[in-house]
Every structure is written in C-alpha cells, then in structure tokens.
Amino acid sequence: MIRSELIQKIADENPHLYQRDVERIVNTVFDEVTEAMARGDRVELRGFGAFSVKQRESRVGRNPRTGDTVQVEEKHVPFFKTGKLLRDRLNGK
After folding, report:
1. For the chain, how many structural domains are there in total?
2. What is the largest CA-CA distance in the chain?
3. Nearest to 57, CA basis, from 77, 79, 78, 74
4. How far is it, in rounded angstroms, from Cα 35 to Cα 29?
5. Which ranges of the chain would DSSP assign to H, the alpha helix?
6. Is residue 91 one of the residues assigned to a domain?
7. What is the pLDDT of residue 93?
8. How far is Cα 22 from Cα 42, in angstroms, rounded to an integer?
9. What is the domain extent for residue 69?
10. pLDDT tens track, the chain, 93 positions
11. Long-range CB pairs of 72-80, under 8 A, 24+ apart, other chains included
12. Pairing of the two strands 69-72 and 43-45
C-alpha cells in the first residue's frame, strides 16, 4: 500500500471527512515520525511496532566491481521492530 492508497482508504471509511483533511492528517503523522527519528528519538506505535535509529560505525568495505577497498563513513539507519500484535497477526495467531 502506498500513501495515496492509505489516504483513499481512510477517506472512504470516513465519509464525514474531506479527502484533503485526511491527506493533511496522514502527512502530519508521517512528518512527525520522520522528525522524531531525525532527532534520534524512538517512535512506538503500540500493537504495530517501534521505529528507531541505529548508528553504523565507519568501516573498510570493498567495491564489488573492482575489488578495491573503500572507506565507508559512519551513518545512521532507520530500524523497525514489529509489535507483538502485528507479529501474531502476520503469523495467523
């Protein structure tokens, strides 16, 4: 499901809301999650999962095409851990 499909589904299920308002709500939620993660905060949605940021240290890598060693810089990567409710639902429990 992509963002526009999510907005359409929510708008269809809530006919009393304008689609532009639903779009604003969805975009605000995603923006807040993104901003929190950019600050290094953890975002937990009970029953769904938790978003966090992990730091990867700098390391020596290898260029797969040439085989040369390359210095890979330190970076921050997003990490998602599923909640128990989501995990159980995916596994048919």
Report:
1. 1
2. 60
3. 74
4. 10
5. 3-13, 19-38, 84-90
6. no
7. 80
8. 25
9. 3-84
10. 999 999 999 999 999 999 999 999 999 999 999 999 999 999 999 999 999 999 999 999 999 999 999 999 999 999 999 999 999 999 988
11. 76/40, 77/53, 78/37, 78/51, 78/52, 78/53, 78/54, 79/51, 79/52, 79/53, 79/54, 80/49, 80/50, 80/51, 80/52
12. unpaired
Q: Is residue 44 part of a domain?
A: yes
Amino acid at site 57: E
What's at 36, amino acid-wise?
Answer: A
pTM of the shown model:
0.77
Chain position carrying tokens 């921050």: 76
**What gap in Å lies between CA 11 and CA 69, rounded to an integer?**
52
